[in-house]
Amino acid sequence: MQQESYPRTHGSWLGRNLNSLGSSGNESQISTLGKLSLYASVTWGGVDSEGDVAFKQVAQAPPPAMRLPGILSKAGRLCSSHRHMMKFADFYDEARCKQLEEQINYDHLQKLERTFREADVDGEGLDMERFRKAIKKILGELSDEDVDVIFMKVDANCDGSVDWEEYLNYMLREYRGKDDMLKSKWLPEFQTNMKSISVSHSEDIVRIQFFPSQTRGVMDHRERSWKSSSRPPSGRFLTVSRDGILHYWSDAFKMLRTVYLDQTKRRHSLKLWVIDMLCLPNLNLLAVSTTDQDIEFFDIGGSKCDRLFSLVDLDGCATAMDYWTDGCKGVFCVGDLKGNVLIFTSTDVVTNGLFNIRGYIGGLGRVPVHLLMKGKTLLYRNFTVSAVHGDWCQQVMYIPQLNLVASCTPAEKSAMALTSLPLHNIGKIQSALIVLRKGILCFDYSAEMNIVVTGGYDPLIRIWNPYVTNSPITQLKGHLTAVTHIMINGQKKTIVSISKDKNIRVWDLLDHFCLQSIHGRNVPLGNCPISSVYYHRHQNILICATYKIGLFFGAEFTETELKTQEPLLCCALYNKIFKQAVSGYYNGMVTVWDVMTGQKIMEFTTTSDQALEMSAMIFDPPERRLITALKNGMIKLWNFNNGACLMEIPIEEKTETNCIFYMNHRIFITDWTKRVTWYR
Fold first, then answer.
1. Which CATH class is domain 569-679?
2. Three-state SS at 169
3. Domain spanning 103-164: CATH superfamily
4. Residue 6: its pLDDT value, please?
5. Residue 375 pLDDT > 80, yes or no?
């Protein structure tokens, strides 16, 4: 059989191989379907001679129960009873989460390359003994069996040696294979067809809020959980346009009522412009900030919308507001145009109200803010963080789990401020700053994972540890323009992000990859960017708005549709070398399972044509490679640990193969023509 091979290239992997992570399959050194061979040394003669030796070693080895790998040998004494077996399973699960391959980071790879170059003096690669020394030199003391497993995975051609390019090829292909496997298992979060709703105004909608019905339960933590009912809360949606037109909508987005907030007769040059709006559900209040440098509060209980009082004499226009309550305590935060952050707290908002304004109620009810900030009592505590940002405050949020107020701005030197509130009456506030080029436009906090996710003018999504502000944990790349909105679904562990070009993306918060991307052309809301977003987590509905409203409903899958996505099993094999089970399916998919944890560790397809079924598969004698047969008679040789196609056997007739057997350096296949064909 003839075979092709990729040319081996030399030089530092930093400038060449890392670039292949983001390159296409034709440019990278990773093998793809349709290529006949990955390594120049893959020949049937070398495979068989080495394979026979490996096969004899396996046959003469002790039973699997006696041959425990390194991490199992430490826990072998736990297996004397069922209870100990459970402890052993927990121990092994924890150990498997920290597999040796996953412990190798960027610095390790740099050191490992130098070690390979120094040890490979003859240019023929490292044998198993020298490979052990190289790995242990970088990663410290490891068991020989753990290192040997990696060597056998990389040395799929069984020539007894591994060089740097061969090792790096394996690592890159494994990374890409696992990334593709993770992406393939997720279903779309939202339907791609947007429902458009027209509104009776021409200005942008600046805010969308949900006002829940108070008869269903006590709202907690910004409507994200409900104490007395597990059903989704009913209520109304409220939208306000920049020119002060307030719309009431049912939870099915049917128009209920329209209110014009500006009742005064002004000249056009003095027209009221709304900057932000916020619902305070358990108080039946609606807060609206305007260009008059005040915040007006309306009573929206029942079918009313009556102005009650206003906070006036702010240093600048209020550009961002936030409200949190646990049903008793309440925190109201305001960020303004000059970068100031105002924080109002009340120990009992239902009984005493959010502000100490009893002396101002009546008449016009205009309450000067500076007087409220001075009047501190046991029931009300107010704080001012002056000019914490060098520019206007883009967003503000109180985080009860950390007892701090987070705020952001597009300014570089004070992109985000984390202001912790004192736990006692005599304490003072303290602020920590995140410095980031181009600043931060939006953020959200995940209480389940204790992380802050941010977006800004650069099209990157950053994940931060709130206790470590000097650098993010990781960055998510995918958007092409500024990220303007970010929302976290803590239950599903996902992030929903929206960029200036109306590209909507859903990200996996655990594995940090994109689950779904809705292109801007599927968001027909005009040419301007999305001005306001509301993510209704209970009903899994994403509401986007410009001068009109668009609804993205959550993708729904019936039980029948979910079952149709589960492929039919063709055959299954057990690999005693790597303690893995390999299952093949009629749709051409091959899945590798860890038998100790039951986790799927690799998945790849044997054909790009989904209509082409798999008919048979078998291991070679060393059990390093997998041989598969397709319905058209095509035979392929795989490194099943990373999904790399090592060889493709040319076929003469396209007949369905129904059995494969490997013996005496030959592959025997049978088909429905009652013939036996062998390859050497």
1. mainly beta
2. helix
3. EF-hand (1.10.238.10)
4. 33
5. no
